[in-house]
Amino acid sequence: MSQSVLSRRRPSRGRRVLLALAATLGAGLVAAPPASADDFYTPPADTSGAPGTVLRSEPSVFYLDPLKALRAPADVTRVMYTSANAQGPTVVTGTILKPKAAWFGAGERPVVAYAVGTQGMADRCAPSKQLAAGTEYEGAFIKGLLARGYTVAVTDYEGLGTPGVHPYVDPRSLGRNVLDSVRAAQRLGIVTSTAPVLVSGYSEGGNAAAGALELASSYAPELKLKGGYAGAVPADLSRVAPKLDGSPYAAFLGYAVAALDDAEPQLRIRDLLNERGQQFLDRVQDSCLIDGVASFAFTQTSTLTKDGRPIADYLSRPDIAAALAERRLGTVRPTVPSLVAHSALDDVVDYAQDRDMARSWCSQGAKVRFQTLVTPTHVGGAVAGFPSAFAFLEGRVAGTPFVSTCGTF
Protein backbone atom coordinates (compact mmCIF):
# COMPACT_ATOMS: atom_id res chain seq x y z
CA MET A 1 0.00 0.00 0.00
CA SER A 2 1.39 3.41 -0.94
CA GLN A 3 2.11 5.94 1.76
CA SER A 4 -0.01 9.06 2.29
CA VAL A 5 0.92 12.08 0.22
CA LEU A 6 0.66 14.10 3.43
CA SER A 7 3.00 12.07 5.64
CA ARG A 8 5.70 9.67 4.55
CA ARG A 9 7.24 9.32 7.97
CA ARG A 10 6.15 7.30 10.98
CA PRO A 11 3.54 9.40 12.86
CA SER A 12 4.64 10.97 16.13
CA ARG A 13 3.33 9.54 19.39
CA GLY A 14 0.85 12.43 19.66
CA ARG A 15 -0.46 11.79 16.17
CA ARG A 16 -0.74 8.02 16.84
CA VAL A 17 -2.80 8.71 19.96
CA LEU A 18 -5.07 11.07 18.01
CA LEU A 19 -5.49 8.56 15.20
CA ALA A 20 -6.37 5.84 17.69
CA LEU A 21 -8.93 8.10 19.36
CA ALA A 22 -10.40 9.04 16.00
CA ALA A 23 -10.65 5.39 15.00
CA THR A 24 -12.44 4.58 18.25
CA LEU A 25 -14.88 7.44 17.85
CA GLY A 26 -15.28 6.67 14.17
CA ALA A 27 -16.62 3.25 15.08
CA GLY A 28 -19.11 4.79 17.47
CA LEU A 29 -21.22 7.86 17.93
CA VAL A 30 -19.65 10.19 15.40
CA ALA A 31 -18.80 7.95 12.48
CA ALA A 32 -20.15 9.24 9.19
CA PRO A 33 -22.56 6.78 7.58
CA PRO A 34 -22.24 5.58 3.99
CA ALA A 35 -23.70 7.84 1.35
CA SER A 36 -27.43 7.37 0.86
CA ALA A 37 -28.34 5.10 -2.02
CA ASP A 38 -31.47 7.03 -2.89
CA ASP A 39 -31.71 10.16 -4.98
CA PHE A 40 -33.45 12.34 -2.40
CA TYR A 41 -30.49 14.73 -2.41
CA THR A 42 -30.49 15.30 -6.17
CA PRO A 43 -32.40 18.52 -6.86
CA PRO A 44 -35.35 18.34 -9.29
CA ALA A 45 -35.26 20.13 -12.63
CA ASP A 46 -37.42 22.95 -11.29
CA THR A 47 -35.89 24.56 -8.19
CA SER A 48 -37.73 27.85 -8.45
CA GLY A 49 -39.57 29.43 -5.57
CA ALA A 50 -39.05 31.90 -2.76
CA PRO A 51 -36.53 30.94 -0.07
CA GLY A 52 -37.93 28.16 2.07
CA THR A 53 -40.02 26.64 -0.72
CA VAL A 54 -40.27 22.88 -0.16
CA LEU A 55 -39.10 20.90 -3.18
CA ARG A 56 -39.64 17.47 -1.62
CA SER A 57 -40.04 15.82 1.75
CA GLU A 58 -40.27 12.34 3.21
CA PRO A 59 -40.57 10.66 6.63
CA SER A 60 -37.28 10.05 8.39
CA VAL A 61 -36.02 9.04 11.82
CA PHE A 62 -33.68 10.27 14.54
CA TYR A 63 -31.77 7.42 16.15
CA LEU A 64 -29.96 8.23 19.37
CA ASP A 65 -27.25 5.61 18.91
CA PRO A 66 -25.39 3.98 16.00
CA LEU A 67 -26.88 0.58 16.81
CA LYS A 68 -30.28 2.11 16.14
CA ALA A 69 -31.62 0.75 19.41
CA LEU A 70 -33.04 4.04 20.66
CA ARG A 71 -35.34 6.21 18.61
CA ALA A 72 -36.19 9.80 19.55
CA PRO A 73 -39.88 10.29 20.39
CA ALA A 74 -40.51 12.73 17.57
CA ASP A 75 -42.11 12.96 14.18
CA VAL A 76 -39.17 13.38 11.81
CA THR A 77 -39.30 14.77 8.29
CA ARG A 78 -36.43 15.04 5.85
CA VAL A 79 -36.85 18.01 3.54
CA MET A 80 -35.30 19.68 0.51
CA TYR A 81 -35.92 23.40 0.29
CA THR A 82 -34.78 26.48 -1.56
CA SER A 83 -32.36 28.89 0.07
CA ALA A 84 -29.70 31.38 -0.99
CA ASN A 85 -26.06 32.30 -0.63
CA ALA A 86 -24.15 35.49 -1.35
CA GLN A 87 -24.38 34.84 -5.10
CA GLY A 88 -28.03 33.83 -5.41
CA PRO A 89 -30.51 30.95 -5.06
CA THR A 90 -29.44 27.49 -3.95
CA VAL A 91 -30.97 24.22 -2.76
CA VAL A 92 -30.48 22.73 0.70
CA THR A 93 -31.70 19.69 2.61
CA GLY A 94 -32.41 19.26 6.30
CA THR A 95 -34.51 17.61 8.98
CA ILE A 96 -37.56 18.87 10.88
CA LEU A 97 -38.26 17.16 14.22
CA LYS A 98 -41.46 17.70 16.21
CA PRO A 99 -41.91 16.07 19.64
CA LYS A 100 -44.76 13.63 19.90
CA ALA A 101 -45.66 14.99 23.33
CA ALA A 102 -48.03 17.94 23.60
CA TRP A 103 -46.64 21.41 24.26
CA PHE A 104 -47.47 22.59 27.78
CA GLY A 105 -45.62 25.91 27.76
CA ALA A 106 -47.12 29.34 27.29
CA GLY A 107 -48.33 30.24 23.82
CA GLU A 108 -47.45 28.23 20.74
CA ARG A 109 -44.81 25.53 20.57
CA PRO A 110 -41.52 27.28 19.63
CA VAL A 111 -39.22 26.17 16.84
CA VAL A 112 -35.45 26.17 17.27
CA ALA A 113 -33.41 26.51 14.09
CA TYR A 114 -30.45 24.42 15.16
CA ALA A 115 -27.12 24.97 13.41
CA VAL A 116 -24.74 22.04 13.75
CA GLY A 117 -21.00 22.38 14.19
CA THR A 118 -18.35 21.14 11.77
CA GLN A 119 -19.50 18.01 9.96
CA GLY A 120 -16.89 17.95 7.18
CA MET A 121 -17.18 18.60 3.46
CA ALA A 122 -18.30 15.32 1.87
CA ASP A 123 -21.94 14.66 1.03
CA ARG A 124 -22.00 11.68 3.39
CA CYS A 125 -21.45 14.14 6.28
CA ALA A 126 -24.93 15.69 5.92
CA PRO A 127 -26.64 15.90 9.33
CA SER A 128 -29.89 14.50 7.92
CA LYS A 129 -28.01 11.33 7.00
CA GLN A 130 -26.25 11.14 10.34
CA LEU A 131 -29.41 11.73 12.37
CA ALA A 132 -31.04 8.84 10.54
CA ALA A 133 -27.99 6.63 11.15
CA GLY A 134 -27.67 7.47 14.85
CA THR A 135 -24.22 8.99 14.32
CA GLU A 136 -24.81 12.75 14.64
CA TYR A 137 -22.45 13.90 17.40
CA GLU A 138 -24.73 16.86 18.23
CA GLY A 139 -27.61 14.49 18.80
CA ALA A 140 -27.46 14.98 22.58
CA PHE A 141 -28.19 18.71 22.33
CA ILE A 142 -30.94 18.13 19.77
CA LYS A 143 -32.44 15.51 22.08
CA GLY A 144 -32.37 18.08 24.88
CA LEU A 145 -34.29 20.56 22.73
CA LEU A 146 -36.91 17.95 21.91
CA ALA A 147 -37.21 17.00 25.58
CA ARG A 148 -38.08 20.64 26.32
CA GLY A 149 -40.90 20.44 23.82
CA TYR A 150 -39.39 22.48 20.98
CA THR A 151 -39.77 21.69 17.32
CA VAL A 152 -36.24 21.58 15.88
CA ALA A 153 -35.24 22.48 12.32
CA VAL A 154 -31.76 21.21 11.45
CA THR A 155 -30.33 22.41 8.16
CA ASP A 156 -27.74 20.31 6.33
CA TYR A 157 -26.22 23.54 5.00
CA GLU A 158 -25.51 24.15 1.34
CA GLY A 159 -23.28 21.55 -0.28
CA LEU A 160 -23.72 18.79 2.31
CA GLY A 161 -25.78 16.07 0.64
CA THR A 162 -26.77 18.35 -2.22
CA PRO A 163 -24.42 19.17 -5.14
CA GLY A 164 -21.69 21.77 -4.81
CA VAL A 165 -18.96 22.63 -2.34
CA HIS A 166 -20.00 23.35 1.24
CA PRO A 167 -19.33 27.07 2.04
CA TYR A 168 -17.61 26.28 5.32
CA VAL A 169 -18.00 29.04 7.96
CA ASP A 170 -19.46 31.52 5.49
CA PRO A 171 -22.27 33.12 7.53
CA ARG A 172 -23.77 34.76 4.45
CA SER A 173 -24.78 31.30 3.21
CA LEU A 174 -25.14 29.36 6.44
CA GLY A 175 -27.23 32.05 8.12
CA ARG A 176 -29.71 32.00 5.24
CA ASN A 177 -29.82 28.18 5.30
CA VAL A 178 -30.70 28.32 9.02
CA LEU A 179 -33.50 30.86 8.59
CA ASP A 180 -34.92 29.11 5.55
CA SER A 181 -35.17 25.82 7.46
CA VAL A 182 -37.87 27.50 9.58
CA ARG A 183 -39.64 28.76 6.49
CA ALA A 184 -39.61 25.19 5.13
CA ALA A 185 -41.09 23.89 8.40
CA GLN A 186 -43.83 26.51 8.12
CA ARG A 187 -44.63 25.56 4.53
CA LEU A 188 -44.88 21.91 5.54
CA GLY A 189 -47.41 22.90 8.22
CA ILE A 190 -45.20 21.51 11.00
CA VAL A 191 -45.04 24.94 12.66
CA THR A 192 -47.24 27.97 12.17
CA SER A 193 -46.19 31.34 10.81
CA THR A 194 -46.73 32.85 14.25
CA ALA A 195 -44.68 30.34 16.25
CA PRO A 196 -41.78 31.80 18.28
CA VAL A 197 -38.43 31.22 16.55
CA LEU A 198 -35.03 30.75 18.19
CA VAL A 199 -31.61 30.00 16.69
CA SER A 200 -28.81 28.06 18.31
CA GLY A 201 -25.39 26.76 17.30
CA TYR A 202 -21.80 26.17 18.39
CA SER A 203 -18.51 26.37 16.47
CA GLU A 204 -19.38 26.32 12.75
CA GLY A 205 -22.93 26.26 14.06
CA GLY A 206 -22.10 29.39 16.08
CA ASN A 207 -20.97 31.03 12.85
CA ALA A 208 -24.25 30.02 11.21
CA ALA A 209 -26.38 31.11 14.18
CA ALA A 210 -24.59 34.47 14.38
CA GLY A 211 -25.06 34.87 10.64
CA ALA A 212 -28.77 34.18 11.04
CA LEU A 213 -29.00 36.75 13.85
CA GLU A 214 -27.35 39.41 11.67
CA LEU A 215 -29.42 38.58 8.59
CA ALA A 216 -32.84 37.97 10.14
CA SER A 217 -34.22 41.51 10.13
CA SER A 218 -33.45 42.07 6.45
CA TYR A 219 -33.66 38.54 5.02
CA ALA A 220 -36.51 36.98 7.00
CA PRO A 221 -38.34 39.80 8.81
CA GLU A 222 -41.59 37.82 8.94
CA LEU A 223 -40.14 35.20 11.31
CA LYS A 224 -41.06 35.74 14.96
CA LEU A 225 -37.45 35.60 16.10
CA LYS A 226 -37.07 35.83 19.88
CA GLY A 227 -33.36 35.33 20.42
CA GLY A 228 -30.28 33.32 19.57
CA TYR A 229 -27.38 31.44 21.14
CA ALA A 230 -24.02 31.42 19.33
CA GLY A 231 -21.15 29.55 20.95
CA ALA A 232 -17.43 29.65 20.09
CA VAL A 233 -18.06 31.65 16.93
CA PRO A 234 -15.36 31.69 14.22
CA ALA A 235 -16.29 35.28 13.43
CA ASP A 236 -13.10 36.40 11.67
CA LEU A 237 -11.32 33.78 9.58
CA SER A 238 -8.17 35.88 9.28
CA ARG A 239 -7.72 35.47 13.05
CA VAL A 240 -8.94 31.89 13.33
CA ALA A 241 -6.77 30.37 10.59
CA PRO A 242 -3.31 30.77 12.18
CA LYS A 243 -4.37 28.79 15.26
CA LEU A 244 -5.46 25.84 13.14
CA ASP A 245 -2.26 25.54 11.10
CA GLY A 246 -0.23 22.57 12.29
CA SER A 247 -2.80 21.73 14.97
CA PRO A 248 -4.79 18.52 15.45
CA TYR A 249 -7.59 20.35 13.61
CA ALA A 250 -5.68 21.34 10.48
CA ALA A 251 -8.51 19.79 8.44
CA PHE A 252 -10.73 22.70 9.51
CA LEU A 253 -8.31 25.13 7.88
CA GLY A 254 -8.42 22.92 4.78
CA TYR A 255 -12.21 23.12 4.76
CA ALA A 256 -12.09 26.92 4.92
CA VAL A 257 -9.50 27.16 2.14
CA ALA A 258 -11.46 24.77 -0.09
CA ALA A 259 -14.67 26.74 0.46
CA LEU A 260 -12.97 30.06 -0.29
CA ASP A 261 -11.34 28.63 -3.41
CA ASP A 262 -14.70 27.44 -4.72
CA ALA A 263 -16.60 30.64 -3.92
CA GLU A 264 -13.89 33.05 -5.08
CA PRO A 265 -12.15 31.47 -8.13
CA GLN A 266 -10.69 34.85 -9.10
CA LEU A 267 -8.38 34.59 -6.08
CA ARG A 268 -6.63 31.65 -7.79
CA ILE A 269 -5.85 30.04 -4.46
CA ARG A 270 -4.86 26.76 -6.09
CA ASP A 271 -2.05 28.59 -7.89
CA LEU A 272 -0.43 29.12 -4.50
CA LEU A 273 -0.26 25.38 -3.79
CA ASN A 274 2.33 22.81 -4.77
CA GLU A 275 1.39 19.31 -5.87
CA ARG A 276 1.06 18.14 -2.31
CA GLY A 277 -1.15 21.11 -1.52
CA GLN A 278 -3.38 20.40 -4.51
CA GLN A 279 -3.82 16.83 -3.31
CA PHE A 280 -4.56 18.05 0.21
CA LEU A 281 -7.30 20.37 -1.05
CA ASP A 282 -8.89 17.58 -3.10
CA ARG A 283 -8.73 15.02 -0.31
CA VAL A 284 -10.00 17.27 2.45
CA GLN A 285 -13.19 17.88 0.48
CA ASP A 286 -13.93 14.16 0.62
CA SER A 287 -13.72 13.91 4.41
CA CYS A 288 -16.01 14.18 7.40
CA LEU A 289 -15.12 15.32 10.90
CA ILE A 290 -13.45 12.20 12.30
CA ASP A 291 -11.64 10.94 9.21
CA GLY A 292 -10.68 14.54 8.37
CA VAL A 293 -9.11 15.13 11.78
CA ALA A 294 -7.37 11.75 11.67
CA SER A 295 -6.03 12.13 8.13
CA PHE A 296 -4.78 15.72 8.26
CA ALA A 297 -3.87 16.31 11.91
CA PHE A 298 -0.76 18.46 12.45
CA THR A 299 -0.42 19.31 8.75
CA GLN A 300 1.82 22.35 8.33
CA THR A 301 0.51 24.44 5.46
CA SER A 302 4.03 25.67 4.74
CA THR A 303 4.59 22.22 3.23
CA LEU A 304 1.64 22.74 0.88
CA THR A 305 2.58 26.03 -0.80
CA LYS A 306 4.94 26.63 -3.69
CA ASP A 307 7.04 29.20 -1.84
CA GLY A 308 7.03 27.45 1.54
CA ARG A 309 5.04 30.11 3.36
CA PRO A 310 2.07 29.15 5.57
CA ILE A 311 -1.43 29.89 4.34
CA ALA A 312 -1.84 32.54 7.04
CA ASP A 313 0.84 34.66 5.33
CA TYR A 314 -1.45 35.11 2.33
CA LEU A 315 -4.47 36.30 4.29
CA SER A 316 -3.30 39.90 4.26
CA ARG A 317 -3.08 39.95 0.46
CA PRO A 318 -5.58 42.69 -0.47
CA ASP A 319 -7.93 40.57 -2.56
CA ILE A 320 -7.97 37.69 -0.08
CA ALA A 321 -8.32 40.08 2.86
CA ALA A 322 -11.31 41.71 1.14
CA ALA A 323 -12.99 38.33 0.61
CA LEU A 324 -12.50 37.41 4.26
CA ALA A 325 -13.79 40.81 5.37
CA GLU A 326 -17.05 40.11 3.52
CA ARG A 327 -17.44 37.02 5.70
CA ARG A 328 -16.59 38.72 8.99
CA LEU A 329 -19.29 38.78 11.65
CA GLY A 330 -19.95 41.74 13.90
CA THR A 331 -20.78 44.33 11.26
CA VAL A 332 -24.59 44.11 11.60
CA ARG A 333 -26.32 44.15 14.96
CA PRO A 334 -28.87 41.49 15.91
CA THR A 335 -32.26 42.95 16.76
CA VAL A 336 -33.09 40.27 19.35
CA PRO A 337 -31.39 39.23 22.62
CA SER A 338 -28.25 37.21 21.93
CA LEU A 339 -26.11 34.96 24.10
CA VAL A 340 -22.50 34.46 23.02
CA ALA A 341 -20.41 31.96 25.00
CA HIS A 342 -16.77 31.00 24.51
CA SER A 343 -14.10 29.29 26.57
CA ALA A 344 -10.98 31.36 27.12
CA LEU A 345 -9.12 28.01 26.94
CA ASP A 346 -10.51 27.04 23.51
CA ASP A 347 -7.84 25.19 21.52
CA VAL A 348 -9.59 25.52 18.14
CA VAL A 349 -11.44 28.83 17.74
CA ASP A 350 -9.71 32.02 18.89
CA TYR A 351 -11.48 33.46 21.92
CA ALA A 352 -10.57 37.13 21.43
CA GLN A 353 -12.04 37.47 17.94
CA ASP A 354 -15.40 36.13 19.16
CA ARG A 355 -15.39 38.56 22.09
CA ASP A 356 -14.65 41.35 19.63
CA MET A 357 -17.68 40.33 17.56
CA ALA A 358 -19.89 40.58 20.64
CA ARG A 359 -18.35 43.94 21.54
CA SER A 360 -19.06 45.20 18.03
CA TRP A 361 -22.69 44.12 18.35
CA CYS A 362 -22.89 46.00 21.65
CA SER A 363 -21.40 49.15 20.13
CA GLN A 364 -24.25 49.15 17.62
CA GLY A 365 -26.90 48.93 20.33
CA ALA A 366 -27.57 45.18 20.39
CA LYS A 367 -28.62 43.36 23.56
CA VAL A 368 -25.83 40.85 24.17
CA ARG A 369 -24.77 38.65 27.04
CA PHE A 370 -21.19 37.44 26.64
CA GLN A 371 -20.19 34.49 28.79
CA THR A 372 -16.53 33.60 29.30
CA LEU A 373 -16.09 29.93 30.10
CA VAL A 374 -12.88 28.46 31.55
CA THR A 375 -13.34 24.84 30.53
CA PRO A 376 -10.32 23.51 28.63
CA THR A 377 -10.64 22.65 24.92
CA HIS A 378 -13.18 23.44 22.25
CA VAL A 379 -15.25 20.33 23.01
CA GLY A 380 -15.16 21.12 26.74
CA GLY A 381 -16.48 24.60 26.02
CA ALA A 382 -19.42 23.15 24.09
CA VAL A 383 -20.44 20.91 26.98
CA ALA A 384 -19.93 23.65 29.57
CA GLY A 385 -22.12 26.00 27.56
CA PHE A 386 -25.11 23.64 27.36
CA PRO A 387 -26.81 24.69 30.64
CA SER A 388 -26.56 28.41 29.85
CA ALA A 389 -27.79 27.85 26.30
CA PHE A 390 -30.82 25.87 27.45
CA ALA A 391 -31.61 28.42 30.17
CA PHE A 392 -31.29 31.28 27.69
CA LEU A 393 -33.67 29.64 25.21
CA GLU A 394 -36.17 28.84 27.95
CA GLY A 395 -36.03 32.45 29.12
CA ARG A 396 -36.82 33.76 25.65
CA VAL A 397 -39.78 31.40 25.36
CA ALA A 398 -41.08 32.41 28.80
CA GLY A 399 -40.52 36.10 28.10
CA THR A 400 -38.36 36.67 31.18
CA PRO A 401 -36.24 39.86 31.30
CA PHE A 402 -32.92 39.63 29.48
CA VAL A 403 -29.88 41.14 31.15
CA SER A 404 -27.27 42.42 28.70
CA THR A 405 -23.63 42.46 29.80
CA CYS A 406 -22.49 45.01 27.21
CA GLY A 407 -19.79 47.21 28.66
CA THR A 408 -18.54 44.56 31.10
CA PHE A 409 -16.42 42.37 28.83
Automatic annotation (TrEMBL):
InterPro entries: AB_hydrolase_fold, Lipase_secreted, TAT_signal. The keyword Signal applies. Gene3D superfamilies: 1.10.260.130, alpha/beta hydrolase. One of its GO terms (molecular function) is triacylglycerol lipase activity. One of its GO terms (biological process) is lipid catabolic process. It comes from the Bacteria. Residues 1-37 form the signal peptide. Pfam families: LIP (PF03583). Keywords: Signal. The keyword tRNA processing does not apply. SUPFAM superfamilies: alpha/beta-Hydrolases. PANTHER family: LIPASE 5 (PTHR34853:SF1), PTHR34853. This is Lipase. It comes from Aeromicrobium erythreum. The lineage of its organism: Bacteria, Bacillati, Actinomycetota, Actinomycetes, Propionibacteriales.
